[in-house]
Hints:
The chain is of the alpha+beta class. It has 17 helices and 24 strands. It has a 6-stranded mixed beta sheet. α6 packs antiparallel against α8 (252-280) and α15 packs antiparallel against α16 (537-554). The longest helix is centred in the middle third of the chain and has 39 residues, at 191-229.
Amino acid sequence: MWFDRVAQTKIKKLPDLLEPGRFQWMGKGEECLNGHSSIQPKDLLISDGSGRCQLHSDSYSFALPKKDKNTDIDLFNSAITTIGKQLEENNALISPILPAAVVDSESHLLPLEKQLEETLDKGHLHQISRNPRLDIRYDEEVTDVARAKRLAKGALVHLASHSEDWQRQTLSGIVPKKVKARFSEDDFNIYENIVYARLLDHLDRHLNLRINTIESLNDTLEQALEFYTDSVTLHHKVQDKICKLWGQTFDEEATTATLELLEDTLNRLRDMHLRIRNLKQSNLYLLVARNAQIGGALHRTNILNHDAHYRHLTILWDELTKHQQKSARSPVECFQYGKNMVEQYSRFVGLVLQQAIQPYLNNHRKNKFDKTGLSFDWAGRKLVVKKEGYDWKLMALDSKGEMESILHLVSWLSFSDIIDFGAVPDSTLIAWPALGQINANQPINENSYIASSPMDLYCIERLGWYIDQKLNKILIADYAKPIEKIPQGPVTWIKGKRLDSSIELVDTRPPSLKILTDLDNENLCTLEKELKSSNAIHQINEVNKRVLEIRALQACPICEATNNRLYNQEKSSFRIECSTCQTNRYLKNVEGFQKFEIQLMDIERSFSARGRWLY
């Protein structure tokens, strides 16, 4: 039995093509992947890098990411791993945006690249291209006399026994038409030249990947730098928040300095790449057979060891091998690495979630990452953040002990393109890396997939937007909702206090009331006493809940000021003005439907400009 984490359903039969990390083993015994790695109950089905999936029950195939994504995948995994290590070291609520350590490790030339730059500058590879070592190959062929320059061994014997090669026979002998000749030809396909050609191929691929990596980092840093200067299109609070998060990695000055360093490294890599490409267009590379490969370890010939130019091929080959061995993994190691990355990504998603709910913690902010979850009071409820397996859940617990699911966040480490996998259950979001597919003006896509990546400066804003939508929906659903069965004693007290602007009495049998605006603590306490004297315990809880919900609504999401006032309007609608930042929020009833919106002056109505406040 397997569990589909996307559709949130159990299935007995897996599809032929599998997405790594999507399916979870729910059987009683263990499964085995490709005969080498065991899958215990509740483990995820992870690829071992081969694309093949042989289980006890049947055989399948894994959907592997496109090769042009390998650079972005390596950079993403490096960022996730670095963030995971930082969380293990101090449990601080760190920024989930690209760590400085990743940028630092990629912004300098690698030892291989330094060696290559020195070798190219000294002209050793160009000298090999211009004056290569070669061998002479001798071939024997029966050919016209006019083409023959040197007779092959046994040419006379061959001529004597092949009369068809005679031109004519005279009294003095035979005049040949064709003879067995020996030809010599320069042979460039010697072992040392094959090493040269294949080394150029490897260096070409390596430099291309490195340039893509540096360009990706460069784009991220340039985007971050724009936030420091773009005060026209962005709301200043969105700008401040993202700059603050980025500032935990780099400040503006450090970002500029790092960009300059990346630009210098990028230019040097491009220069080396251009020279390697030019060498691949030269005579020697084109003369070496394309299918000639170097198998196994490099054979160190006398030329490779002692020639003034060829010996540098050995040095570069050794550096290249060292670099490749760092990332080379066996199928077992690849499977274990995949399991570790799934756990690291789950932790990263939890970090983004805990950052996104910070505005709701008020005075309870700890600036600490909780590995298993946390809980806090909000609007008469207790909000609970909980880690379950690889997923995260946000739930609301009311005074009756009833639990309401607000968000089920599935962390899915998949590098495939978005495919329509069917309907995702309500209140469920699929957090995935979305490499190369992040939409700057769309918080989540139509299939309930949300980009969650350290390369995305809006990753917290995206999840914050969804959480705000869900929690605001709870608050406005309860606004002006009647509290029924109010005893006569509290009704008489309310009429005597003339609290018409805050409490509306509904003439039903028995009476009901609606809380329209906030009650001061004195009136709230007195109302509670009146209700308690009439043994209306349920009504006390409901009144408290409504007041706390109104106070939660009055808190400004922009500047977090709490000394604001909610003004009731007709048809159970309201208006809230923030005296600090002059932001207005409205609840309107349009044709029987509630519409809650925020008014931000002179700011484009787009996600990139407003962030989580796009409503």
